[in-house]
User: Fold these one by one.
Assistant:
Number 1:
Amino acid sequence: MECKLAVSLMHDYLDDDLSKEQQIELKAHLLTCLDCRMQFKELERTDMLMFSLTHHASAAPFELTHRIMSAIPQQKKQQLWVKWVKRHPAITAAAIFLMVMLFSTVSFWDQDGQLVVKGNDLEQVIIEGDTVIVPAGRSISGNLTVENGKTQIYGDVKGNLTVIDGSLYQASTAHISGQVKSIDQAVDWIWYKISNIFSDVAYR
């Protein structure tokens, strides 16, 4: 498989749009190509970040909009601000993206830590305190998302498993057919995205 084809398939893989044969071919290529493997990891990290932002974007939309609008200069200074924006469009776009990302992430990580479980076949799941258990011999059809809790998988998950701000234990009897995502360490993510954005701007 050529690297160009592998890169085009990465996005479809993260969106669960690849056939089993294509998934196998892509995974085989990633095992042998370091550059493609690094690029896939970057795409996967970005995908996890965007999932966490969109997953919690509805938490405080009014507050987020209010904070962004409050940061815009008043009418007297608006002409200078508009001129600066026109001269530096790339930096302006990066700054707006950073502002939205920071406010969304802070809102997400400041929540009360209540356990949230989403997915299909939740009657197959056992919840003990803050621990979500998929027992051996039981199967969940579709994706499973666990937020602010401990996840223990002994049975089958026929889809993606996403653990947000929690821990995951996967027994030897477990089988997860989709992707396993663990989203945490918000501060590290913020600095990672900041460094990437300013690196891209610097090279333009």
Number 2:
Amino acid sequence: MADTTHGEGRRASSFPPWLKKTLATLATVAATILGLLFVTFMIGRVMPIDPVLAVIGERATQAQYNQTFRDLGLDKPLLTQFWIYVTDVLRGDLGESIRTGQKVTTDIARVFPATLELATLGTLFGVVLGVPLGVIAAVRRGSWIDQLARFVGLIGYSMPIFWLGLVGLLIFYGILGWVAGPGRLGIFYQGIVEPITGMLLIDSALRGEWAVFRSAFSHIILPASLLGYYSLAYISRMTRSFMLEQLGSEYVITARVKGLSEWQVVWGHAFRNIRIQLITVIALAYANLLEGSVLTEIIFAWPGLGQYITTSLLANDMNSVLGGTIVIGTIFVAINIFSDLLYRFFDPRSK
């Protein structure tokens, strides 16, 4: 009996910890995606929109209505409908858009690069300015620059993004004329660059079309800056909080007693210890910009995923709305997994 127990314990202990964490992560991801699909499925069923009439129109006959009702599988039990819905999504079939007459996946592949480009540039803006601002504010706690950083963060959190967008258009486009207006590209430059990645700044640079690049940059700089300002407010605030905690630690005091320069203490020791926390903060900020740029895209007539979902919702095109929601939710999960992998890479103790 003792030998059996010892053998069982040895087999249990030989199970690799990294495999346990991998399986746990995969199970969490699967449960999250399944929950997302269940929520979107139920939304499609409880919305006060008849999916049959949305397809065939209100002038269809009763026979046409009944046939379409069966073709859509709405005559089947709810559990069977959900199973069909899940299998279709896993195969990459998000249905057909009533508004455009194309596959929802085709539409999303066309509009998502615009959102990706906008959110990426906004996040870069927030990181490049927000991280140094948060560090300096923590080092100079109580000074004017600390007060300025807190004021900038407060404005970023308090002001509605649509209001900032309208004011920005009025000042920088309408009055000063420093940037281009709504849209993604000037009319004269439409169709000149053949898409490679779908992101105009990258594609125009790769093609060597610098006039197109300047036009695209002039259109994107204002909405990206506004999104970046929202991201900056969050990143600078969290960076300041993390740095204040580190600067009050004993190892920082010891480093200063040893005669290390302020640069070495701040950036070589304190900042190095908050990198892991910043990874999660930046990843969340990026995910929030990807899913939360709807109002910005509407104000600036930006042909991205947010505007696509909003336009589809107004047109009662639920396939497009739910398809876009699934894509955004999946991207949010993927970014969180990626940040977790980076966390483990920079912090071996979490492996």
